[in-house]
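Table S7 (text form). Paired inputs.
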Amino acid sequence: MANQYLLELRGVTKLFPAVKALDQVELSVKSGSVHALLGENGAGKSTLMNIITGVYQPDEGEIEFEGRPVRFSGVDVSRKAGIGLVHQEGSLLPDMDVRSNLFLGRYPSRCGFVNHKRLSRLAREFLDSIGMEEIDECAVVETLSTAQRQLVEIAKALIDKPKLLLLDEPTASLTEREVELLFKIIRSLQQEGVGIIYISHRLDEIFQICDRITVFRDGRHIITDAAENFTFDSMITSMVGRSLNEQAGTLMKNREDVLRDERVLELDHLSRKGFFEDISISLRKGEVLGLAGLVGAGRSSLLESMFGFSGITSGSIRIKGKQININHPNTAIRHKVAFIPEDRKYKGLSMAADIRENINISTMRRMRGRLLLSESKQNKAAEKYCQKLRIKTDTVFKQVNQLSGGNQQKVIISRWLQTEPEIMLLDEPTHGIDVGAKQEIYKMIEDLTRQGISVVVASSEMTELMLLCDRIAVMCEGRITGCLSREEATEDKILTLASGEIQA
């Protein structure tokens, strides 16, 4: 009888200095199956992907692909064997156009020269065939949006017609419409018999697209079962060893002893033409105000205008009762406002810099000695916040691109806490972060409010908003359609307001 599995790993172990990244793990993926691989950061998912694609070699264990023992010596070898990878960090060359990235290393040629006309035609035909008609094959990658770059990454992996496709956080930067396109592509690949390993921190997606689930924890295999046999809570329990209710505990309970009557922020008929209109809302001292809404509702644009990244066309902003013209981020910072953007890698962090520099960059004036910047002051400040926020690193000189998403987010939060803010604007604060790290961010927000800091949170996750927020303002097409208290908020009410059906 033929082996029923496309890929099978048995007893795979990988050792690094002082760390056992994988410990006797098992994984079996069938052709035509979408198999979720879940676990917190550090659970071993990325290490396993690197072993499957030949970046790393296992220290123990067996790997079979299409029923034959394999041990790939590199990514090129695994790709030729039929394994494709869409990595979370991206692999595109930003200064080249889309068509050149798609056919890198195998350009059609004529008389020894690249046949650009045929290259364009092949790229256009392929993009159209997978539903990516809106991607311009001649556009330079660095001019594309984050979501468009991600779609090109996916197209690049598909152009080789893989038998097994590894997707690592493929929807992290996609809009709902683009997620639907990806899911359509995945279902088409399933019908063609392609096996898919799907890694995502967005657990709601797992139930939508995956038929089997494997959970890793601390480098060990915990469970594999059909997706229908899991619940949201049982997935989390398998990943972190405790249930969602246990994690939440008393988080954000008994809020009356935190909230103050003082209004620290007031938006009065605030508008920015083409983005949001007539926004009037206030924020109390110690309050967590949520911004809910569908993609394109205007949440991010509103936060950016409140911080001075983009101007307003009408209306006013008052901080502690005083009208402030916030026309630049420096103005917001002077008035104790901090902003953590959704896209931390492009708008929040200097990825080529180390932890110390990223934490201290907004408060360098405090780091001066008599003449030059004080190394000891910089080190002390960075080490203080690494300890305070439990940033997992062995040194403050580690580059932030080597940190997990949760730890990167803590670095940004550390930077702004150094400015001693009174108002924090958080745009998708747990975007691309695993369940365990999310709980740490939630607890951090709770602690900030108990210190008297007021917080505005924009999030696509309704469960997150209902857990964190004292009130939730719901936006639709640039307007606030209703505001719900913690007691009033339900998923149905938020969705109804977000769709613009009623106003409350």
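Next pair, protein 2 of 2.
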Amino acid sequence: MKIAINGYQLPEHSITFSTFPGGEEYIRIPKSLPTDPKEIEVGALIKSSQDVMRLLMITDALKRYVGSRDCKFYLYLGYLPYARQDRVCAEGESFSLKVFTKLINDLKYDEVHLADCHSEVGVALLDNVHNDSQKLIISHNPTIHNLVNGIDYIIIPDAGAAKKATEVAEYYGKPTIQCLKQRREGKIVVEVLGDVKGKTCVILDDICDGGGTFLALANALAEQEPEELHLFVTHGIFSRGKRILLDHFNTVGASYDWTKD
């Protein structure tokens, strides 16, 4: 959790986080804070339900500190948890995304900032929301900006990624190659609608979790012997680590990275 007051970043060690034996969270913000708070920014990369509770509690502590003074509150989430659970698919399920976005709306932030949200439903359910596009994110990331500038093709991994990847491709003046993904007998099967032999390519998408889709893509593309193959996602959960992917890609990158390997 990162907190800035009037542009000053609070040292992370100055905020007390702990968990009681019964599982309850405890948070305390420093006593010595600016006496004239005008803007407070909270940055939260939510990785667990524990992080959700900590966000709720730290917001409450900050609002109590501000009291009746006029102060703007900004929340930077980046990744929107539960965005992949944006509908009820079977009787008895919870509408998980709506549950989470209601918690955020109840915090009454003046602005909520997301990055390349997986679901338009999530954007629609949030109040005062700003959702940065993948194009904007890439253009502000020097490493991936230079990479996209230098490649031959942008690979679109599936139909769901087509709109965002095409927007990036048009911005950089790069051609695209669409891939079609199907599941057959529990396995991911990929069809590449183009030729990448001897070319440098980057696959763009919003989320990589376990990486199964991208491994299937890499294997399908490898049959055509590209010169280089790169992977960039906005949110890299990488639940199986990045090493399994680096055996198939020249580089693997993410704007929001859950891992260190």
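The first strand starts at residue 2 and ends at 5.
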